[in-house]
Amino acid sequence: MQSILERITSGKFWSFHGGIHPPEQKALTATKAIRTLPLPKQLIVPLQQHIGGEGDLLVNVGDKVLKGQPLTLASNPMALPIHAPTSGIITAIKKSVIAHPSGLSELCLFIDVDGKDTWIKRNKNQDYQQLSSSEIIKKIADAGISGMGGAGFPTHIKTNSAANIDFLIINGAECEPYITADDLLMTEQSQAIVDGINILKQVIAPKNILIAIEDNKPNAIKAMEIATKGLAHIHVCVVPTKYPTGGEKQLIKVLTGKEVPSGSLPINCGIIMQNVATCFAISQAVINDTPLIERVVTVTGQALDTPQNAWVLLGTTIDFLLSQFSAQPLESGKQPVIMGGPMMGFGVLSEQVPIIKTSNCILIPSKQEMPSAFDRQSKEVECIRCGECAVVCPSQLLPQELQWSAKAKDYPQLEKLNLRDCIDCGACAYVCPSQIPLVQYYRIAKAEIRQQQILDIKAEKAKVRFEARKLRLEKEKIAREEKQKKAAAARKAAMNKATPEAANAKSAVAAALARVKAKKAGTTTAAAPESNKSENNVEDNTQKSQVAAAIARAKAKREQKNQTNDRGNNANTTEDKPPQDSAIESTADNTKSVASKPDDKKAKIAAAIAKAKAKKEAKSAPSITQSTDEASTEAPIPATQSDNSQADDKKAKIAAAIAKAKAKKLAKSTQANQSTDLEVTSGNADVDANNTTLTKSEKKAAIKPSHEPNISDNIGSSNTDPSNTDSSNKTQNQADDKKAKIAAAIAKAKAKKLAKSANENTSNNANNNTQKELT
User: Fold this and answer.
1) Which of 27, 372, 557, 652 has its CA 20 to 30 A from that of 283?
2) Looking at the structure, do residues 324 and 385 belong to the same domain, yes or no?
3) Model confidence pTM above 0.90
4) Which residues form the domain of 191?
């Protein structure tokens, strides 16, 4: 360190790589005192004017504010408050274009100035040495001070993190052409700047303090030497003029010979750097309780009538500044306006852009002075690989490769090439013979990389939140399972106790299990009435019984047809089919038609009742059967006829026995109600099978009305006169058929009427009686 101080004292400094010597053009404003401007009619104050986030709003539209009043509140360490530059009324809070190369818009406060310039109450403190470090840092933060050399880093963060600092460097180099704001500030406010340096010394406690000023600022050098006379810990260092000596890492190299590693900060090397304008703002905040509401701005360029430095309120628009320094209004849209110097500045798209904390220059060049600013068409041509950009780069980068990667949006390669070490000095673009705007490519690439980094941080935070949520849900699931297990164990223990509550719990569990089983089986409830179950079973079994009945009917018809054919083929048989058979068939057909109706169940019950009544009437008419038997004995039938009748009876009995056996088999597989349905639906089969077991006289007695002529008369007459027998039989058969149909219709009507009043038990009893009579 001693060697460093010795070199500085002897005026020997180190040199950094590269650098250029552009025309200075400082004479336009360097010899003129700083001017105080009148109050503008309106101020546009952006909420964010530094590196970091914006504060929380403290005012609303329509509020009246005083000069120095806080407008926002810092909500995090990287946020800084802003203050009202003068008194007035908040007329709007909306987005407006700000000082940015892209011309983007941010939230701004619009203040209509009342012209009174009324201050808020301030607490001045001339004896700042009595303040503690924490109190000083708080005053710096509350004043909203950020680095005023161009970066805009919050000053209280840099000051509060200091530890084991070897050098506190005050940057007064101001190396960029045209700009003389720091030069004039040091010339006119040297004592205030020294007060600020002493305040920083009290907080940081550096071993040495170096004030760096380029040798092209004689007035500033003289003023600072006078102000620091007698202060052994402060050294005024006059460094050679070279662009960009004012760069942080470049000035550290010039003064100390140290190189800050890539990706590292000067504080890691025991060095802190502050701008002279920042030191002045610190003294104003700590001693005079004045927040950062104005700064010195160089308004220069040959297109202006009176270029000069001026104290400008933050939020003052560019068009107001131009109106103060030019007699004639500039031609809008054609005159280029540059915020900053010619090397590191950028063109603004609107004259409504306001001055912010980092604005130090407004350049309005003439066409002869800077023709490239008026030619909006790019003259960029292909790189000729001359290598001049790499020669002059003060950060020892490879600008040519950086430009290729930036155009290709190869961000990983840009990281490898250390794009973040680029200070946007513009030296590479200044010497490029192909007129490639290299700095513009780098700025765009940096912005895109920052945006991608923000997205990556958000994605990482979202991932952390997702993992935390997943873990929380897993814990909740385990807790629920444990709770359910404990509840189940408690219920089981309670059910095992011999108490009424345990019995009720068991019955409740059994009922719940029954409901679950019922749902699985497709039933609606677990405790449905038994009648509903039987109805469901009957409906299921009815379909099966109907199929079986249809098969039985088909077999009975086939056998009946065979018997009829056998009787017709017998030459000695003169007896036609009895009218009772036709009546039975018609009754069976009627029964089938009833069964085929939609109200199938009622029709079946009605048919069963009609069948029972017919059998009951047949049982109550024995005289008819006896007269038939007597007639058969008095008038014996010929042998041939009796033989045929016996053969027919035998076949009929066999068929009846088969049908009866099938009916019994079906009856066993169904319940009592199903057997009733089976007998009804199998109409022809049951009628034929039951009737075949009866004699002919019993069939006639069961079907024919009591007032009909006895069959024995017909038989007797047939023995005496065969010719008359044929004609009388035809007539009698027609009459019997007609009567049988009438009787069947009446029986059907009665059956329907009775079916409405008959219940299920009556039908079952009738079917049981019928089966007993048949057996």
Assistant:
1) 27
2) no
3) no
4) 2-372
